[in-house]
Each structure stands twice: as C-alpha cells, then as structure tokens.
Amino acid sequence: MSSINIIYEDNHLIVLNKSVSDLVQGDKTGDTSLDVKTKEYLKNLYKKPGNVFLGVIHRLDRPVSGVVVFARTSKALSRMNKLFQEKKVQKKYWAIVSDKPPVEEERLNHFLVRKPNLNKSFAYSTLKKGSKEASLSYSLVGRTKNYFFLEIDLHTGRHHQIRCQLAKIGCPIKGDLKYGSGRSNPGGGISLHAREIEFIHPVLKEELKIIAAPPKDVLWNEFLEMAGNQG
Predict the structure, then answer these.
(1) pLDDT tens-digit profile of 25-47?
(2) What's the half-sphere exposure (Cβ side, CA atoms, 13 Å) at 43?
(3) What are the chain's domains?
C-alpha cells in the first residue's frame, strides 16, 4: 500500500500532510499522485470493489508541504467547493526567507498575471490586462542568524501567490529558484508549508481546525520552538 500521511479522516473527508515531493493530482510527469495513493488506501482499507470516489478540493504546488483536504463523497466535495468559493475557509502558511521583510507585519495586495508557458506568475502594484487581484497578510514571527520566519494568512487563492508576492517585496522563499532564491533546498522542495486549515465541516456542521507538522528539518524545528508549537 502506498504511504500517505493522514492527519484527519471521517466518512466525508480525508486530510493529508503532503511532503514536498508529492503531487496532489496527476500531471505530465506521470508520477503517482496523492489522490491515486489515497484512493488505493481507501480501497484496501474498506475492501471496496470497483472505483473509489475521491474529490480533489484544492491543490498545493509540488515543492510545497502541508495540509491537503480531499472529499470522500460527492456531497462533501460540492459543499467544500462552495466553502472555498465563498471564502469561508481560513488557511495559514509558514515560510522561511533569507531576507528581512520591509516591515514586520503587512497586508500585501497585488495584481498577478499568470504565464502558463513559464509556469510562473508575476506581481504588479497596478491593474494589468489579464491580471487577478491577490491578497495575503504576513507577520514576522521569528529569526535566526541567516533566516526569517513568516506566518501568512491567505485571503485569495492564486497561482503561486505566496511565492510570487513575497518575491515581489524582496523576500523569495528559501529554495525557490523560480522566484529568486539563491540556492535550492535538499530534495528540491521550498520552505513553504501549509500549516493550518479551518472551516465548518460540510456535513457535521462543526468547526474543524487541522494542523500539519512541518517537514523534519533543523530550521523548521527552530520555527516550531519560536511559535511555541510541538508538532
């Protein structure tokens, strides 16, 4: 059975802690994606004949780690999609950067233009043709000799949004060569982690807050200590 890191599961949803090497959904690489691995897990666990339903609700870039939510039923999928569309899902990210941000706490608003041929987005301070508005808030929550730790609240969900907006203010994420980091990380990931997701459960109607532990790494461990978290 393919290994997946499950951090929450019920009859309606299954939530994983994605590693930096995982694809959420299949692409041209042909690598086995998390949705396929999760279907295999469910099929084996519940000994289901035939196809297993699993709905992809949202995605994380391949080099990013952290919390990913899948729907186990079509009802949960449609209701979760509606929550995302109505901006009723709160997402918190952690990032490590090597450059100090201009101010310690700020809301960033940019207009992002996506260039599919480059698999990259570009941030502008004024409206551009074909652009989409992007907004996030960050705060500086810690620092070491060489790095700065940021906590980010995402207000919109654009292509490469956090990577692009932080690079725009001179703070590319550690390991993110595409957006200006000076060197890569071991394993090819970047130091961006989807730490937390919070929403009202689409079926149970209870508040659900799910936290994903960052990758096991010296810098992330320091971040955990500074943030006063143990996992």
Answers:
(1) 877 777 899 999 999 999 998 88
(2) 14
(3) 6-227 (3.30.2350.10)
Contact between 123 and 131 (Cβ < 8 Å): no
Pairing, β 192-200 against β 65-71: parallel
pTM as predicted: 0.93
Give the bridge partners for 153, in sequence order: 92, 137
Beta bridge mates, 6: 16
Dmax of the chain from CA atoms? 56
Q: 56 with 159: CB under 8 angstroms?
A: no
Q: What is the pLDDT of residues 150-185, one digit of tens each?
A: 999 999 999 999 999 999 999 999 999 999 999 999
The answer to whether 100 and 177 are in contact (CB under 8 A) is: no
E strands, the chain, in order: 6-9, 13-18, 55-56, 65-71, 90-97, 105-115, 120-124, 132-143, 148-154, 192-200, 207-211
Query: Which tokens in the block code for residue 43?
Result: 């099929």
Query: What is each CA distance from 9 to 36, 80, 88, 101, 183, in whole angstroms?
Result: 16, 15, 20, 37, 37
- Whether the CA torsion 53, 23, 209, 162 is positive or negative: it is negative
Residues in CB range of 149: below 8 A, 6 or more apart: 94, 95, 96, 140, 141, 142, 143, 222, 223, 226, 227
